[in-house]
């Protein structure tokens, strides 16, 4: 089992995990790994390899067909459903389909995790606009999601996922709807969050983007997971 070479307690641990839908074949087979706190991994693999399925096990949308899944030291593969909301509050998730609330403003969409956590409105009014400015949406604070482009919605979804500095951030193709320059800016946001202690897993098809950063890959192929070392050293932001 691999944990990136770090002998520290795991944020995520899979032991001999398998996943199938209904009576079909296993999508994931004998998946075993451990992710250390403050580690950063890309999740790669061809379409249909099971990247989204693996992420769904980590953010508790699915339970494994077999094996053990542990988050923050707690077995979640057999935990009661009543115990899961408290664990989910320690996660940040960026979904491919955004999952924004159309009746709320962009500011209120991003502020939602902070309000759930009981953060003061004073802090919300300070930190949410700062983050939205950083992702290039300073002029859209009071806009509603239906008025935004796909790339703008993606940036809102990312801001919402990172606003409360989650212990574990999971992102499914977070740069799929933006150009390369914005993609690099968003990746650097994830890197800065990682430096603050967040464990990050990013699923992506963009090998060119992955190769700009010195982080290992978790590579899925035909239902099996392999760890690959970084291809090259990271490119500094000022060279991009």
| Morphology | globular
**Global mean pLDDT:** 89
| Count of distinct strands | 10
Helices, by number, come to 7
Structure description:
The chain has 7 helices and 10 strands. Helix 3 runs parallel beside helix 5. The strands form 2 sheets. Strands 6-7-8-3-9-10 form a 6-stranded mixed beta sheet, sandwiched between helices. The chain has a 4-stranded antiparallel beta sheet with strand order 2-1-4-5, covered by helices on one side. The radius of gyration is 18 Å and the shape is globular. The chain has 240 residues and is of the alpha/beta class. The longest helix is centred in the last third of the chain and has 16 residues, at 180-195. Strand 4 (66-71) and strand 5 form a beta hairpin. It has 2 domains: 1-90 and 166-179 and 186-240, 3-Layer(aba) Sandwich (Rossmann fold); 100-165, no CATH class. Residues 1-6 and 236-240 have low confidence and may be disordered.
Write a concise synopsis of the structure shown.
The two termini are 35 Å apart.
Features:
240 residues, alpha/beta, 2 domains, 4-stranded antiparallel sheet, 23% strand
How is the topology of this model organized?
Blueprint: E1 12-20, E2 26-35, E3 40-44, H1 51-58, E4 66-71, E5 74-75, H2 84-88, E6 91-94, H3 106-116, H4 121-134, H5 150-162, E7 168-172, H6 180-195, E8 199-203, H7 207-210, E9 217-221, E10 224-228
Parallel strand pairs: 3-8, 3-9, 6-7, 7-8
Antiparallel strand pairs: 1-2, 1-4, 4-5, 9-10
Helix pairs in contact: 3-4, 3-5
């Amino acid at each position: 089992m691999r944990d990136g070479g770090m002998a520290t307690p795991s944020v995520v641990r899979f032991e001999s995990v398998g996943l199938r839908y209904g009576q079909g074949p296993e999508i994931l087979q004998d998946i075993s790994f451990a992710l250390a706190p403050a580690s950063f991994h890309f999740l790669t693999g061809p379409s249909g390899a099971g990247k989204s399925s693996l992420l769904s096990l980590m953010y508790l949308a699915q339970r494994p067909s077999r094996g053990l899944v542990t988050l923050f030291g707690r077995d979640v593969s057999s935990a009661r459903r009543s115990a899961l909301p408290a664990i989910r509050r320690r996660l940040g998730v960026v979904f491919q389909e955004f999952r924004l609330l159309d009746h709320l403003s962009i500011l209120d969409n991003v502020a939602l995790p902070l309000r759930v956590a009981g953060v003061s409105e004073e802090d919300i009014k300070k930190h949410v606009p700062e983050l939205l400015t950083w992702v290039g949406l300073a002029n859209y604070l009071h806009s509603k999601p239906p008025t935004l482009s796909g790339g703008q919605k993606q940036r809102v979804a990312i801001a919402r996922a990172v606003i409360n500095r989650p212990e574990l951030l999971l992102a499914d193709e977070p740069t799929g709807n933006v150009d390369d320059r914005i993609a690099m800016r968003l990746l650097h946001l994830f890197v800065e969050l990682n430096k603050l202690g967040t464990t990050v897993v990013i699923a992506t098809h963009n090998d060119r983007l992955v190769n700009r950063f010195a982080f290992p890959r978790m590579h899925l192929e035909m239902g099996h997971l392999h760890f690959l070392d970084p291809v090259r050293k990271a490119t500094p932001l000022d060279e991009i």
